[in-house]
Amino acid sequence: MDNLYVIKGQLQQVYAKYSKFIDKGVQFILALAAFYMINHDLGFMSLLSNPLITLGLAVICAFLPMIVTVLAAAVLILVQMAAVSLGIMAVTAAVFVIMFVFYVRFSPKTALVILLTPLAFLFHIPYVIPVAFGLVGAPSSVVAIICGTIVYYMIDYVKTSASALESGGATAMISQLMTYLQQVFQNKEMIITIIAFVIVLFLVYQVRRMAISHAWKSASAAGAVVSIVIMAAGSAALDVKISYPELILGNVAAVIVGLILELLFFAVDYSRTESVQYEDDEYYYYVKAVPKIVVAAPEKTVKRINRRTENQETEIINTDEIRRKSAEDGEARKEGEKKPGKRKAAGKPRSPRKKESQITGNMDQLLLTRSLQKELHLDEEERND
Fold it and tell me: Sorted alphabetically, which keywords does the UniProt record give (predicted)?
């Protein structure tokens, strides 16, 4: 776990340094995925379904606010539906206008939720959305989730009924519109899904705010279990066919996403929890303090070791031996001068103290010379020569 927290800290540092580029990159990926989903499911107009058009729209939307991406996706849906039926396009446009006028323009930050919900349906993990935004969002996100769910079911109906809508002609437009409204807004599967999403989001939000240990894990698990129960019960009560493997795997994915979000946004150490009690003139206060987990990245120390050559030899200089030999040479020279028959050297005789200082100076000069030769590797160059 420490390695995960170290990686988290490194990611935070990278994001703090390159946040502008990362945000634009994520927005580009979301826009590209949304436009691809629309053109893949509603590819009735071949010009807009061109991959270059999709890529160009995603690049443009990456440098604009997220609300512009949502509006561009809405326009793309309307244009694709116009190639099938103008009446279906008009009804869908009216629904989009209601969503924008009464909600999106007051909460532009929730435009991301409207964009992510149909994408989650496309990847067969829609149950991730209420769990994720129950953990990191607010109860107001439920309106955006409902809008995104309605948008997905409108796209799904046009996709599955495109052949019938095209063959009906202009005379059957009224019946097509009535069928479209009935199939979308009276869709039992959509109603069960919206009810499950609303209940799960409020449940997850309430549990993760409770003063209990492992609140986020408990909230994710509770949301997944309640989602499975509601969808299964609604399917049995309203006779709606749902895919149970997709239901189970989708909620497992929701729990995994909840654990990842906890690691990123709510990493605490419950083993060091402290309960504090204090009072003032009017109240008693009971405070539960849970410290955050902060793991510092280990510092790397680099130790440089100089490689020794294979033929390098080490010479040890014994200063005591050199002093002893110098002293013996001095004594021998004195005895030779005292012997009779020997001719004394001309000039003033040197004093013993002066001779001893000269010997010591010679020895120090020899030691300094040997030390410099060893440091500058002059002895190795002479040996090699």
Answer: Membrane, Transmembrane, Transmembrane helix
- CB-CB contact of 192 with 234 (8 Å): yes
Q: Which residue has the tokens 């009224």?
A: 174
Cα first-last separation, the chain: 60
Quick one: which of 87, 95, 81, 83 has its CA closest to 150? Answer: 95
CA distance 268 to 28: 33
Angle between helices 19-41 and 141-160 (to 10 degrees): 30
List residues bridging with 276 in a β-sheet. 287
CB-side exposure of 147: number of CA atoms within 13 Å?
Answer: 25
CA dist 278 → 287, 288, 289 (Å)? 8, 12, 13
> Alpha helix locations (H) across the chain?
2-17, 19-41, 51-62, 66-82, 86-99, 111-122, 128-136, 141-160, 162-168, 173-185, 188-208, 215-238, 244-265, 319-338, 352-376, 378-384
**Which tens digits make up the pLDDT trace of 145-193?**
999 999 999 988 888 877 776 655 556 677 777 888 888 888 899 999 9
The C-alpha atoms of residue 176 and residue 119 are separated, in whole angstroms, by 27
